[in-house]
Queue: 3 jobs
Job 1
Amino acid sequence: MTEIGLIGKKIGMTREFYKTGQSVPVTVIKFDTGRVIQLLSKEKNGYNAVQIGFGKIKNSKLSKQMKGYFAKKNTEPKKVLKEFRVKSLENFKEGNEIGIEIFKDTKFVDIKSKTIGKGFAGAMKRHNFAGLRASHGVSISHRAHGSTGQNQDPGKVFKNKKMAGHMGDKIRTMQNIEIIKSDPENNLLFLKGSIPGSKNTQVVVKESVKNVRKLTMSEKIEKIEKLKKIPEKKKK
């Protein structure tokens, strides 16, 4: 299992066609080659981890401390630094480059990205409330969220009450997303279905932590084609 992952950019959505004519919606993610910047060991840091840098950034946009850090590591500046916990550091070395090839034999991945921000939203949009009645004495508060508290005791609104407020713009994880296709030449990964976030959103992609036993799309189609080839038993 691949313990490390990659950080990519969501380009948008398209669809892939199989030979059978089946259409599958896919999200395209573009990756930059990652570079191992630092190895953190259990003896020195208390845990084993690999720090990988992604993306390019101008030297002028770095702080003095980060300029010194990259100069010390003898590598070009990276926009994002991300730590991945690993069991062993044997397979990693500072300066090594890591690309899309780590998902070569992977069928399913977990992704983490930020959802689209919707700004300040009402209770009906944010929490799927039904709202108040459209007639019979309801006075100009049809989309209100209704009562929020109790009586004189406790005389307050409890924390986490579902109310209007800031919607979206939160980090969300989606698990067991199927890799439909990969394009190593252009560093593209085609993932089945939609994933959180708008275009150009930063996406962390790792191999699925769960033991996924479901069939992939190509395996399903292959199974159906085999069944079609089996001749039906002649009726007696």
Job 2
Amino acid sequence: MFERIKTALVLVAIVLICMFATTSHYPMYGLMVLAGTIAGYEWSKLMPQNQSVHAYLNAGLMCVVTVIALYYSDVSLLFWAASILVWGFSVFWTKNFPEYDGWYNKALYLIGVVLIAAAVTAIFSVWSVSPWWLMYLFVLVWGADSGAYFVGRKFGRRKMAPSVSPNKSIEGLFGGLILTSLIIVGVQSYYLHLTLIQHVLFFVLSFITVLGSVQGDLFESMIKRRAGVKDSGSILPGHGGVLDRIDSLLAAAPIFATGIYLLKLIGVDL
């Protein structure tokens, strides 16, 4: 437990320093490239017929793709759109696992590149709008996870996806949704000055982002279960791998970044 807490504190410190210590984009840029590269390596280790050479090649590819996508914003938009499409299909995959596992094939290498590149570029984009909006995204994801954990532990009876993640319950899901709804309303009430329709749009975006975070967690759990491993890696003592820490953000970040982009297009300036 001490090791887990120590690792978490170090991670939080690094992320907060990159987010708030300077207005320069280089620390955050470097952090995203590093996270994307490591996540790409870990993703490839979960693939069918994985080999060490594939893992290193995928890490290198992920590094190059992340750099390009971070530099060219139009490329990032394409990754976000493709990512959201994949997450839509993943709902069917998790719902029908393990009876259907046709998704577990070499195409997952490409899917991993899309999902990871979309996530890290989305995180960087939200940070570019404001570090506080990125903090809000983190709080939504943490709130959904924490609410689900505590409510599910106390009241959980009905399993949400027993074949994918046996510890997650329907009651826990509602607990996470209720907690994050309170967070959303609190932020809207104290910090946003929008019209009624704009408030509704922002709430819907935030709520969908939370649902996305739940699906991201389930999808990574399903891949690990299919690959027969407990953690995606061991680089983070007490926490597993980078993918284990950002699984919820894989889906949540592109959804939220796309929503902010679309809201800005219709004149909602957050």
Job 3
Amino acid sequence: MDPVEALRRIAFLLEWSGASPYRVRAFHTAAGAVRDLPPGPIDAALARRLPGVGPVTAEVIAQASVGEVPAYLARLEAQTGPAARVGWGLAAAGAGDCHLHSDWSDGGSPIEEMAEAARALGHSWAVLTDHSPRLAIAHGLSPERLRRQLEEVSTVNARLGPGFQLLTGIECDILQDGSLDQEEDLLARLDVVVASVHSKLRSEPGPMTARLVAAARNPHTDVLGHCTGRIITGRGRPQSPFDAEAVFAACVEGSTAVEINCRPERRDPPDDLLLLAAEAGCLFAVDTDAHAPEQLHWQSTGYARAARAGLGPDRLVTTWPIGRLLSWTAGRTAAEPATARPGRTPAGRSTSG
């Protein structure tokens, strides 16, 4: 036990219990504050001088810094039981995040800042997935800008050094005919492609089903992003109607992961569809869809949902090491001989080193 682990674990258990997001955030903030401190005992009074650390989190830091299980954590573990421990095990096994944005599209932070935040959370990889051209409101990337971004990702990786890799990617709009909004040769170069619907979300079930099925079967699609398009906060937005069984069957057929989107206003797919996708045998990507560094900690809510759906790490691509992830996106599975998807080969896809 160390202070960062203790604070993150408490945040997860509070989320599991339905605590206020503000309360959860306090423990994530404190974890960030102590991340770079040297190991060894930390006095509670000293901990309170750190930015974002209050009396409760200071006591947790002090107790964990001498190897003790903090009393606050012990109480939460007793209250939440073994199911929550399974959920925390999944969250702790997380290796990366397939969906994050930078200020190249509608994010608020530079690429390197997002990468550093992901590394600080313990990730060994993360995927930069800024928007594609037709989402003009989000400053989507034209082919020319995407090519420049590939070069920038390579530069960022060189500065970050070993132990973490930022992978190239895109959140590509699924157009009305089910095709993807980017040039084929560029999609083939990317490490990970998240395909999402952002327009005509209230289409009739038939056309929407055909649209999602076509995207799930597309050899360039690795992850089907926030599949229902719902918004559950504020004025909200209803989920798009479609034949979920047909869409998830197409995902299984194409070895395309269903995203468990962790944004608080999305939490997409809803629980009933998450269970349906789990029963269908889908793979999943637990993704934050982060547009700022502090949003990366949302991922633990998705792992809590995955645990409740009975999913283990073998079904969650965001727990996989980078080699396995890239083999999968090149069209391989762990149980079968390496076979690249049409148009996508392991060699030459990654421009990020």
